[in-house]
Amino acid sequence: MREARGTIVESAPLAGLDEGLRSQIGAARRAVYRSVSGFDGAATEVSGTFFLPSGKPPAGGWPVISFAHGTTGLTNDCGPSESPDLMGYASSVISLVTSGHAVAFTDYQGLGHPGRHAYLEPRSAAFDIIDAVRALRNLYPGIVSDKWLALGGSQGGQASWAANEYAGDYGDGLDLVGTIAFAPAADLSGLADGARNGTLTPDQVGLMPSVIAGLEVAQPDFVVSDYLRGPAAEHLGKLISCDEDKEQYFAQLRPEQVRPASAAAADRLTEILDTNALPQRPLAAPLYVANGSQDTLILPEWVSAAVSRACSRGGTVEHKEMAGRGHVDPDPGAEAYLWMQDRFAGKAAPSNCFSDR
């Protein structure tokens, strides 16, 4: 099974991509590749999109960025590869390509291709991201480097961070130079106490149906009805979908609809979220983390605690908490780009572990 990782099941030129965007790149394909489920070890098939810059590749091939998207939904129609603008990510991807990077952009298992999406299960996401690099190299043999960097925000920030932790063994044959994680959902164990106590923020209440639905995929004995009731349960299919009208269902959610039904259910939720929390192992490469001080979805103290634990495991971490920023706008811009370029250039990575940041 491991030998099949990243092999191409099917591929075709990427159809429907906005022509203004297509004109700026050298090649774009949609493909389905093989990967592995992180929670049961089963073979999986994952879709994604794959891009090359224009022109002649540098010596050693185009450096690779494995791009990890944030939450789109949990159903098969939620893969960015099915959207003309990659569900809003096209401009970010094209910016990376035009700056001289090949880009592997996974949909994640169960999005864009048949299967079920284990939302925020870190190992599956890590494997999807790593195997997307293998798929890119298989699509364009001989012109894509083995040097790669993972980049993502929110769900993608968690996925990129997890890929860093698993790259040391699962990523054999590839050379990870670093990872950038914006507003990473690294540790959501605080959601359990918030749900138990009724202290979730409105953003977190909206997140809970997706969290519960994702856990049910990875945990066969997980009982959704122990956690969701009323509109949260009745409209779960809509809440985790990519339907255009789903926002009206989010407006109906209230904290009591996502409160565990018993102390035992609350304890079970805490246990699973703790198990999924990062870090799970030492980092394989430097990590850059940026999050907003006003983030009401992934609380700043959650991110800081996860960073501190990664540092304690010997990681090289540069952490920036952006004052006044929320969940969707923590990107520090040029600083993160320069950090990325320095990693590809082989420069020593900075770290502010154990500083006041």
From TrEMBL:
Superkingdom, natural source: Bacteria
One Pfam family recorded for the sequence: LIP
Alphabetical list of SUPFAM superfamilies matching this protein: alpha/beta-Hydrolases
InterPro entries: AB_hydrolase_fold, Lipase_secreted
Name of protein: Lipase
Lineage start: Bacteria, Bacillati, Actinomycetota, Actinomycetes, Mycobacteriales
